[in-house]
Structure formats: structure tokens, C-alpha cells
Amino acid sequence: MTNRSFEIVDVTLRDGSHSMRHAFTKEQVRETARGLDKAGVNYFEVSHGDGLGGSSMQYGLSKVNELELIETAAAECGQAKVSVLLIPGIGTKYDLNDAVKAGAKMVRIATHVTEADVAKQHITLARELGLKTIGFLMMAHMASIEKLVEQAKLFESYGAEVVYVTDSAGALLPHEVTERITALKNELSIEIGFHGHNNLSMAMANTLAAVQAGATYIDGSLRALGAGSGNTQTEVMVAVLEKMEYNTGVDLYKILDVANDVVAKYMPRPQEVTGSSLMMGYSGVYSSFLLHTEKAAKRFNIDERDILVELGKMKAVGGQEDLIYEVAANITKKKFAVAPKP
Ligand SMILES: C[C@H](O)CC(=O)C(=O)O
Ligand SMILES: [Mn+2]
């Protein structure tokens, strides 16, 4: 469909991998990909939750090799294109080459919001491979607007065609999204995207703020399946934005069908704002830490919220999953420490 107001990029099969504990099966991917393609979504992402090469003890082992999942999804695509996520240092150039062989047509190179400089060679390779190439600045709440603009400009200078404001912690409020997208629109020539998490129940409001400020790539996931409280819900986004007379290019009934008849059936639990996921938004913690924190809290028999507040204070970033256990161990030590005798 032409004349879309923006592109909706569905991340169910990548961000949703966190909630699925990276256990997507081929059948689940096949059915979801088929539904997204039929509904008219142009781009959807398939990878381990932490991107290509993420399957590991640190981030969680994939049940099925992601290349097989990419291949399975690509085989279902009539008009849609499969995207992959790559975090330099977790994924490598070899992983990207393999993903292209498996059928990927777009890549989002993701870095912490202050570290765009590590992405240069990956962006260059992605362009050489003929991929639609996007820069993805994670934990966007952690940088000033000036810093964000500086880093986005680096992505632009390396050859990214779109740059994203990624609210990995679901910590941004609508006026902060407006300020960020507006600044990028004013300072860059490439398109701007927004990726939200619903930890403070702001994902839809933030997405609207982004679109109204000029974002032309917006992310969502079916039934909100994603890290933390999940993402902006794709099917809700389609309904709301169509009601506002934007042209999403997505068929509402068909996107509802894949959300409810396919994804809802395999979700391990509904995506809700729980005490812990709310604390992630409130304290600014990376959403994909949620299930790791749950596990650590159980093991040490402590309150997960205490771990999350501490991680927020430490300004922990993606890739520092090992800190979760360290923080939990320290909280336990303090809890059981015997006060020194006076
Ligand atoms: C690896 C992260 O899950 C990427 C992402 O979706 C985010 O930062 O948010
Ligand atoms: Mn995310």
C-alpha cells in the first residue's frame, strides 16, 4: 500500500523473545509472520531478544537457532520484509552476513545512547549488503537532548537511513519524547523512529507524541509482547492512528486476528504493568532486565524492586546483566550483616 503516513515496525518476534525467554518455536514464528504479512505490515523484526548472536548464558539461550527462525519468517513474506537487530559486541559482522543469507532485508544497529561510534563498521557493512539500515539509540532517557542529537548525527554520518529514539526503560514521558523527536527532526536529514516500552503505561501516549513530532518509523508488538511491561501494542496503535486519520497501511481486522488468534495463544503471561516493571520505568532500568531480576530475587529471597532501584541508581545499561546478581548479593549481604559491636 502506498502513501502510508509512517512505517509500523512490528517487534513481536524480537522484543517478544525476552518475554518468551527466547523460546520461540518455528511454528509460532511461522504463524505470526504469516499474519503480519497478510495484515500489511511492511517490516517486522526476528532475532534473539538481545539481537543477533544474543543466545548465551548471559542473555539466555535460544530454544531454536535464530537463523532458522529468520528463514521461517522470510518464507512467509509476500510483501513484508524481515528485519534483524544487531548490538555490536553481541552480534558480529558474520552474524549479519548469515542473517542476510537467511532472508533479512533490514537491520537495526543498536547501541547505548552515548556509544553510536561503535556502530560505524556495522552500518557500513549493512549498506554494502544492500540492507535498509537503521540506527537504534537505546536507553534514550539517559542522555541530554544535545548528546542524543550528537549521537544520532554520528549514525547519520555512517550511512544510517533512519535513527531511532529507543525508550528501552519505558522511562520517558510524552513531553520528553516530543522534545527529543523535534530536536532530531530539526538537526538531521534522515527519518526518525520511536520504540516505546509501557512500564509507566505511557507507550501509546509516547508513540502519539513521536508521530505528532514527525517520527516516520514506529515500533509495536502484538498484544504488547516485549520486555518489561511490553511495547506499544501494534493492533491498538493501528486502531488509534487510523481513528486519527493517519494511514497505517495495516488492515485492522487482520492485525487483530494475528494478535488474538496467534500471539495471545502462546504468550506465557499477559503483558501488564506490574510492581517490578513499573519500577523499571520509574528508576530508568533496561526493560530486558526484568526476568533476570525476577530470577535473582527468588534465588536470594529478596524484593525485586530493591534490585531494580539499585540498578537505576547505578545507571546500569544493556550488557551489564551480570550486575543484577552482584546487586542482589550485596543487598542480601547488607540484610544479614551483623551490626558491628559499639
Ligand atoms: C536489546 C534490547 O532489547 C533492544 C530494545 O528493544 C530496547 O532497548 O528497547
Ligand atoms: Mn525494546
Automatic annotation (TrEMBL):
Q: Where is the Pyruvate carboxyltransferase domain?
A: 6-256
Q: Where is this site: Transition state stabilizer?
A: R14
Q: Which InterPro entries match?
A: 2-IPM_HCS-like, 4OH_2_O-val_aldolase, Aldolase_TIM, DmpG_comm, DRE_TIM_HOA, PYR_CT
**One Pfam family linked to the record:** HMGL-like
Q: Which positions are annotated as binding substrate?
A: R14, D15, S168, H195, Y286
Give the CDD domains listed for this entry.
DRE_TIM_HOA
Q: Which UniProt keywords apply?
A: Aromatic hydrocarbons catabolism, Lyase, Manganese, Metal-binding
Q: Which reaction does it catalyse?
A: (S)-4-hydroxy-2-oxopentanoate = acetaldehyde + pyruvate; (S)-4-hydroxy-2-oxohexanoate = propanal + pyruvate
Q: Does the keyword Transcription regulation apply?
A: no
Gene3D superfamilies according to UniProt: 1.10.8.60, Aldolase class I
Give the Enzyme Commission number: 4.1.3.39
List residues binding Mn(2+).
Answer: D15, H195, H197
The record's top EC class is lyase
The entry's active site is H18
Concerning its family, UniProt says: Belongs to the 4-hydroxy-2-oxovalerate aldolase family.
User: Which protein, by its recorded name, is this?
Assistant: 4-hydroxy-2-oxovalerate aldolase
- Species per Swiss-Prot/TrEMBL record: Psychrobacillus soli
Q: What is the lineage of its organism?
A: Bacteria, Bacillati, Bacillota, Bacilli, Bacillales
